[in-house]
From TrEMBL:
The chain crosses the membrane at residues 12-30, 67-84, 96-115, 136-158, 170-188. InterPro entries: PC_trans. This is Phosphatidate cytidylyltransferase. Its EC number is 2.7.7.41. Coiled coil: none annotated. PANTHER family: PHOSPHATIDATE CYTIDYLYLTRANSFERASE. GO terms for molecular function: nucleotidyltransferase activity. It is found in: Cell membrane. Pathway: Phospholipid metabolism; CDP-diacylglycerol biosynthesis; CDP-diacylglycerol from sn-glycerol 3-phosphate: step 3/3; Lipid metabolism. Pfam families: CTP_transf_1 (PF01148). Its main location: membrane. Belongs to the CDS family. It is a multi-pass membrane protein.
Length: 235
């Protein structure tokens, strides 16, 4: 009888890395100011570096690489600028950033558990074989829950729901926002997955133990921030 060696689980490493990232990010967000701006700018530079690493494998053409990088600089730069603007504005509210981060995480968690529990048809199997429509629905539920909690906090609905003028929009705003967040975050995920497939790599980098690169961790967040920037520009 042959001995089968099971692959070593990286759950412990992934968990420790995730906890470390949450502590560091949370501390920087609460602190704000120059520390926040410098930290986010460094993250942005790391994202551009990883983006370039993918582009080098996707295209050998100088013009093609230039076009890719121009798009990447606009996409990542706009998202980073939006994040800094939210926190450093005169009425900067760290809880709003926590709500955005929480919503993106909720999309991932909801999609993971709903996808595993329900399964069903894939959204785009050639790009991301693990993403299902059931997972998208789970992401929608997760994002809606976080949106509801933030709206209850931001508009004082915890103190009194009945009679509050914002209460009338609650049942419309929450599901629409939850759906928009889930779809946008998943789109960001699909975009990065598509790039990685074209580049022939599993991860965008190996900076974060057990989690791959920066781009792997914030693909959905980048799409959300870019979307917020577009909305602000149009309004």
């Amino acid at each position: 009888m042959s001995n089968i060696v099971k692959p070593k689980s990286d759950l412990k490493v992934r968990t420790l890395s995730a906890i470390t990232m949450l502590i560091v990010a949370g501390t920087v967000i609460v602190t704000g100011g120059v520390l926040f701006t410098v930290f986010v700018t460094i993250i942005g530079a790391g994202l551009i570096y990883e983006f370039w690493g993918l582009v080098r494998k996707i295209s050998n053409n100088l013009l093609g690489r230039a076009a890719w990088m121009l798009g990447g600089l606009i996409y990542i730069g706009t998202a980073i600028w939006q994040l800094i603007s939210i926190r450093t504005s005169a009425d900067g509210d760290p809880y709003f950033i926590f709500a955005v981060l929480g919503a993106v995480i909720a999309v991932d968690v909801g999609a993971y558990f709903a996808g595993r529990a329900i399964g069903g048809p894939k959204i785009a199997p050639k790009i991301s074989p693990s993403k299902t429509w059931a997972g998208l629905f789970g992401g929608f539920i997760g994002a809606s829950v976080v949106t509801a909690i933030y709206m209850l906090y931001a508009f004082g609905l915890f103190e009194g729901f009945v009679g509050n003028p914002m209460a009338s929009t609650f049942w419309t705003f929450v599901p629409l926002t939850g759906l928009a967040i889930a779809v946008t975050a998943q789109a960001g995920d699909f975009f990065e997955s598509w790039m990685k497939r074209r580049a022939g790599v599993k991860d965008s980098g190996n900076l974060i133990p057990g989690h791959g690169g920066l781009f792997d961790r914030v693909d959905g967040l980048l799409a959300i921030l870019f979307g917020l920037s577009v909305i602000n520009w149009l309004s």
